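Notes from hallway chat w/ T.B., transcribed later so I don't forget. T.B. wanted the structure written out for a chain they're using in a teaching module, and asked if we could keep both sequence and structure tokens in one place. Agreed to drop them here.
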Amino acid sequence: MNGTSAIQVSVIEPVGKALEKTKQILFSPFEWSKWFTIGFCAWLAFLGEGGGSGGSNGGRHGGSPDFGHIRHSIESNLYWIIPVGIVVGFIVIAICLVLLWLRSRGKFMFLYCVAKNKATVVYPWTEYAREANSLFLFKIVLWLISMVCIIPLVVGWIVVIIPIARAERFLPAMIGIIAVLTLITLLVAIVFSIILKFTEDFVVPVMFIHRIRCMDAWKRVWELVKNNSGRFVLFILFAIVLSLAIGTILVAAAIATCCCACCLMMLPYLGTVLLLPILVF
């Protein structure tokens, strides 16, 4: 740890090395079995992180909602709504925990394949179980902390939105409250996004190299961040630009193939295999 402050990090230099490494792993030589095996580890590493988004447009029909009637309907059916809600909630939490655990194992499996240029599943699954479980527990704690921050914000938004919906007009007195809530919401989202980003991009590799637990790796990474704060800010900005560039390429590919590529990339596992060069990079 004493030498950590002397370590200098670069943002641009790894790009060329990453391109060369990607070429070496996937194309020198090209092997279908290797591609699909590493693709499976990558799929496991990002399991459940993707997904589509949808929305619906509601029209105003017959005036404002009858909140009194809605509340009465809910109260009269609480005898089954509460038990069903509890059961559904536990099922959703259980599924999320299983996916998070599998992703934690997959992170080290995929990283092993990339770092060692090997296509294997069983060895990294068992060899890095301790580190993966440590990452899993860290993310659970981080998730609980985020809930403590998010729930008051959700309550605040509900308290603001319901009066506006009932009055069917925007109240000028709400402008200040909405501005404060928006600012706090953005701040919380940015902070937790950066923590997750640093965990994925820096903490996991440090755990992998030094075979240490998540919090020990975070201590090492934090020392680097403190002594290279400007470079890490540049890294975040560069990562945003890189993500936009990759997103533009994917959109262009979808348009060029009349959305056929987009449909293929949305398929479980197969989409990950198609995107493997980007993920390895």
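Follow-up for T.B.: The two ends are 29 Å apart (CA to CA). Might be a good example for the class.
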